[in-house]
Amino acid sequence: MQAEDMMDIRAEIARRRAADIQTVGAGQGLNIPEKRMLPLVPFLQSPGVICEVKRCSPSVKNINNLLDPVLLARKYVESGICSISVLTEQNYFSGSLADLINIKTAMPEVAILRKDFLLDPEDVEISFRAGADAFLLIASLLDADMLKRMYDRGIELGMTPVVELHSREDIAKAAAFKPALIGINSRDLRIFRIKPLQPLKIRALIEWDCRIIYESGIKTGYDIDFVKGTGFDAVLVGEAAVRNPEFALALSASFAEKPEADSAGESAELFGFWEKLYGRYRLHSPDASRPLVKICGITNHDDLGRVIDLGADVAGFILAESPRQVSPSFIESCRNFDILKVGVVVLQEGEALPDEIAALLESGALDAIQFHGNELPAEYLKWPGYKAARVKDEEAVIQAAALPGPAVLVDAFSSAAYGGTGKRIEDELVRKVSSQQTLWLAGGITPDNVRGLIDDYSPELIDISSGVESRPGIKDQNKLAKLFGGING
């Protein structure tokens, strides 16, 4: 059983709020005006950046418990931010409707989003009267009928509902009325952990035209570039903006700027792989448990064609010393095969990516690089791709979770080789990895154990090489068929 099956912080917050409503009312015991006294401002017009006012959260107990909400909001506005999110939840975020009222009263021209765990149409009415221009609806907290009722009431009042989606079930609820503005939170609200790729996964399953906000987890320039490069319409910056408004706002300004053609092209090249990879979830959407599949160690066209026919999402080509090593010219010969292509390299600290491999990326023969050696973040983050980490103990799990980048592929440690050994990570270590980060899993996966690994750990990507071979570099067609039979349940 995974950590997210054992707890649900989101549900606990909603239960506490429902109890408070019974005690002090939906208005938090405040004197909410009987009629709206403040102007209604269109939300998220320009730029596509929302900065947040909050004191703490379940994951960070003290962001700034002494903050002056009006002063912080004023700093945002002076830096060109036109849309502000205000946390009004009291028990876990130390927020209040008073913060929202005070900010809107001081700066009536600013568009304010009320961010809270809202439960019924009365919450929408009170948000409107308090001065909110927009309000958050967390679809997972509401049944389909209540979600629609609250959305419709907001529209009637001229407000902007932001519908936050976390799952296929949430999407099914919202599909009935196709909200125009969607928020997708990279933070799993059940366990309050960041999963940077979750917004891409959920976005791939939305089938109507809408604008989509990437929420949470924005701390660095790389994070902002990732959101821009993967095509989101807007971004919500929370903790980083509260802790350091000047730094966060500089990042936000870069998101809002109209990119130069060269800059836009570079961003698409660096992050386009992630958009393409997670876009493949649309193909697998009927099966909620189906992970993305990378078949590695491809050395010939027949095997490549077969794994494509079976439904693989990524083909891996070994460009390091290995029995499965291929040449750049072979990868060039695979250019027209319709599958994402990843080159696997093993570099030492400070070693540059070889020119002939960089050329494969630049020409489009490769979509990304898997860095499987001792590369440092400064060396691998500048290329399309991701880091692989060999895990042998709990300390290695912690180190892997701390590596920057949207995802880290975890593989079993071997002193004999960097990968392709057929060795599995110990179950307890896999469990710890899955509780810390998005699980991309390699090492010792076979047709016989794949279904159990999927059922037990719900990996988002599995990487298989030796487990489906008849000999190094040559795939066994029967093993491949059995593997995909297990993957597809």
UniProtKB/TrEMBL annotation:
- Give any single GO term for biological process: L-tryptophan biosynthetic process
Q: Which reaction does it catalyse?
A: N-(5-phospho-beta-D-ribosyl)anthranilate = 1-(2-carboxyphenylamino)-1-deoxy-D-ribulose 5-phosphate; 1-(2-carboxyphenylamino)-1-deoxy-D-ribulose 5-phosphate + H(+) = (1S,2R)-1-C-(indol-3-yl)glycerol 3-phosphate + CO2 + H2O
Record-stated family: In the N-terminal section; belongs to the TrpC family. In the C-terminal section; belongs to the TrpF family.
Which superkingdom, per the lineage? Bacteria
Domain Indole-3-glycerol phosphate synthase, by residue range, is: 45-250
- One GO MF term attached to the UniProt entry: phosphoribosylanthranilate isomerase activity
The metabolic or biological pathway listed in the UniProt record of this protein is:
Amino-acid biosynthesis; L-tryptophan biosynthesis; L-tryptophan from chorismate: step 4/5; Amino-acid biosynthesis; L-tryptophan biosynthesis; L-tryptophan from chorismate: step 3/5
EC numbers listed for it are: 5.3.1.24
State the organism's lineage: Bacteria, Pseudomonadati, Spirochaetota, Spirochaetia, Spirochaetales
Q: Where is the N-(5'phosphoribosyl) anthranilate isomerase (PRAI) domain?
A: 293-484
Q: What is this protein called?
A: N-(5'-phosphoribosyl)anthranilate isomerase
- Keywords from the UniProt entry: Amino-acid biosynthesis, Aromatic amino acid biosynthesis, Decarboxylase, Isomerase, Lyase, Multifunctional enzyme, Tryptophan biosynthesis
Annotated Gene3D superfamilies: Aldolase class I (3.20.20.70)
- Describe the task this protein carries out: Bifunctional enzyme that catalyzes two sequential steps of tryptophan biosynthetic pathway. The first reaction is catalyzed by the isomerase, coded by the TrpF domain; the second reaction is catalyzed by the synthase, coded by the TrpC domain.
